[in-house]
Amino acid sequence: MRPDMSEWQLIRLDRSEDGVRVLTLDDPDRHNAISVAMRDELVDCAAGLRADREARVLVVTGAGRSFCSGADLVEVLGGPERDVVAMRDSLRDVYASFLELRALPIPTIAAVQGHAIGAGLNVAMSCDIRLAGPGASFGATFTRIGLHPGGGCTYFLTSALGPQRALSILLDGATLTGAEAVRIGLALSLHDDPLAEALSMARRFAAVPRELARDIKATVRLAEKGLDASLGYETWAQAATATQPRIWETLRGPRG
To answer: In which domain, by residue range, is 16 found?
Structure first.
């Protein structure tokens, strides 16, 4: 893979000719905490990926011992003297760093080894698929410091686990091991080297036509809104793919 030559200091983007992109949170001395500077770089990176017509799959990982230890709350919140509106605006800016990744039309895979805590958990949950290493930990630890969960964490956990389990994890401020996350469905599978597995999966996904992968991802997201929403999008997307010559070469090919 070849690295992106942008002026980013805290993240790295590597590109390969097969359309796989690897985004690495690269501030290991601070366990890849999301600072204001990293937030801005992530938003810039997401905009570039959205405009990248050759991008087919994104893998997200962290350098060093952590995936992402969360937001730098002291820097982001500023202090107790700030009013609620100013703090809310600062938090929304941080949320954009991972919600812009979630909004990408291409499939996204998180390779989680080490801590994914608070906003770091949200980064992982913003990806379509999460692969965990044996040293991974997924923490919704907000209540441990008296803070309400943010960044969509309540939505992500409820969507993945159901309201009962999500509420229990959030109120406990629980941290799950990689194996526990896989067992309850927070992560897909456990691997000694989650990044290597994520790259292998990404290459398989990259072989799917870009528009087809995009539409399947969109339909899976719509499934949360119910059967009618899924059927409406599926009907259009399936009809669109049915215009491709490859389909008819298969359907009208030799039989017997």
So the answer is: 2-206
Q: 62 pairs with which residues across the strands?
A: 25
Assess contact for 124 and 160: CB atoms under 8 A: no
Residue 200 lies in a domain: yes
Phi and psi torsions of 240, nearest 5°: -65, -45
Contacts of residue 103, Cβ cutoff 8 Å, sequence gap at least 6: 46, 50
Q: Which of helix, strand or coil describes residue 138?
A: strand
Residue 256 belongs to some domain of the structure: no
Q: What is the CATH number of the domain that holds 17?
A: 3.90.226.10
* Model pLDDT for residues 196-241, shown as the tens digit of each residue: 999 999 999 999 999 999 999 999 998 888 778 777 877 777 777 7
For the chain, the average pLDDT equals 92
Residue 256 confidence (pLDDT) above 60? no
CA distance 223 to 225: 5
Please enumerate in sequence order all residues whose Cβ is within 8 A of that of 255, keeping only pairs 6 or more positions apart, or say none. none
Q: What long-range pairs does 145-150 form, CB within 8 A, spacing at least 24?
A: 147/73, 150/91, 150/95, 150/119
Statement to judge: residues 165 and 246 lie in one domain:
no
More confident residue, 191 or 246: 191
| Same-domain check for residues 13 and 111 | yes
Q: Is residue 82 located within the same domain as residue 185? A: yes
For the chain, how are helix, strand and coil distributed in percent, rounded to 5?
50, 15, 30
Residue 213 · residue 237 · CB < 8 Å: no
Are residues 178 and 230 located together in one domain of the fold?
A: no
pLDDT above 90 for 176:
yes
Task: Specify whether 242 is located in the same domain as 182.
Answer: no
How many structural domains are present in the chain?
Answer: 2
